[in-house]
Amino acid sequence: MPRILPLHQAKTALTLREKIGQFFMPAAFINDTEEEIQTIERLIIEQGIGSICFFHSRASAATNYEGKKEVIYNTKSLERLKALIKRYQAVSKYPLLIAIDAEWGLAMRIEETPQYPYALTLGAIKNNDALITAVGEHIGYDCLNAGIHWNLCPAVDINNNPENPVIGYRSFGDKPEAVYKKAKAFIAGMDKSRVLNSIKHFPGHGDTAVDSHLGLPRIDKSKEELLANELYPFKELIKTGVDSVMVGHLAVPSISDSTTRSSTLSKPIITDLLRSEFEHSGVVITDALNMHSVSKLYDIKGQLEWEAFEAGNDVLCFAEHTVEGVELILKNAEHNQIENSFDRFWSLKEKALNGAEPEFGHYDYNGLMQQLAEATLTLVKGQISDIQNIRGTGFDFLQVGKKTETTFSKNITAPASDNPNIVIAIFPPEMKPNDNFGFSEEEIDAINTALGSKNCVVYLFGNPYTLHLFNWHKAKSVVVAYQDFPAFQENAVHHFYGKVAANGLLPITLNDRVHEG
User: Fold this and answer.
1) 232-240 helix and 176-193 helix, angle to the nearest 10 degrees
2) Chain-centre distance of CA 479, in angstroms?
3) Most buried residue among 86, 156, 262, 496 by CB atoms closer than 10 A?
4) Per-residue pLDDT tens for 335-355?
5) Helix, strand, or coil here: 219?
6) Nearest residue to 505 via CA among 488, 480, 483
7) Nearest 5°: CA angle at 10, between 9 and 16?
């Protein structure tokens, strides 16, 4: 269907029903079948939806919580994504906003694309916000090159719960001021690339031990406590200006009208706190409405979408009942609320789609990775002299988490055997704490046995919370490299041999308890 009017003229041409259709953001999947693609096309044509959010496949992202579906690796995902975007745009009466979660780059959803360090890694950078800005800028250009306008990040949750199953490494750290400053720098990079941002998961999903994909987390803190911690980055970033705020699925009774209502459905949290008190004038978007914490609340199709809109959300992400939701909003919503939400969303669309095409400039991914590796490597325990002593007197070598040779292992010479000194390289199979970060009990025992019987230097290539599995305080020295990227491993090798310093600062607080496994 050809577009009838440019954006600036089209705004006054939409009917009330078409305006409501703009609030809906169904999910689109890169590996969909032709039948599924045609279903989305019909939604675009018949309901006039305003945006779509891409995920990898129906077996990934927010659709496969029980792990019953196999995720198929597709090396052609990027080409497929670009083709689908063109196809969906071609049938839309008005240009669609294309969104994705690319917190650490398109690689979060798309194979064979650049991956950048996790937010927790960036949180280790000291006094070099320009590096974080560069990451946001590079990710933004990758998005725009693929046809994506809206990157639903960064997460500004303060991760102060080591057992958090859904945030963790997606957070810049556990200190409110640091999270705010890192997020501000990241957003500055996104702004340079002209890709839209969305800070999340309001009012703060960090201090939870429940995965909101599966159940509804609850935070029992006073409003004063929240303002000093969870709410702080949101409030400060809104002052500087953000494109949108994503509301998370979590119950926060002290600022809501219910002890069990999700924030995404709470008018006191969205309309009163976020809009009125924090003065956020931009778009508010829900977290994915298919997540089990809210998706099973109502038997009537479309009721969830209506309740989310009534609470104050402008965009309904991963709406599963678009047709019914449009009807209920049309039937129940006040005219002023529809018009105000439409004005906010259309302004966001104009910001993304109007203006000259961005100039991409020089792109040095490998150089940026090297700088990031050097800026983040963190000496958590011990002194560089401890590493020098072990290196000088000989050592054994133990690698856990990867069975094949790594960049680090092949560059660490361990001529000794049965030596009282040992270098341990830890590669956590998973970034999330579920199931001990993917380690078996045998692997945990092997590391703890070495820590209890030898002079140990530990290099960790993954989530620093992994150290809670081990008696890490017994090591002579502990170094966290955060990522297993080649540049990060190479930098760790240089550190071991005394060629570079550890410049990073641990962005979280580790406990000092002894592991009791």
Assistant:
1) 30
2) 25
3) 156
4) 999 999 999 999 999 999 987
5) coil
6) 480
7) 135
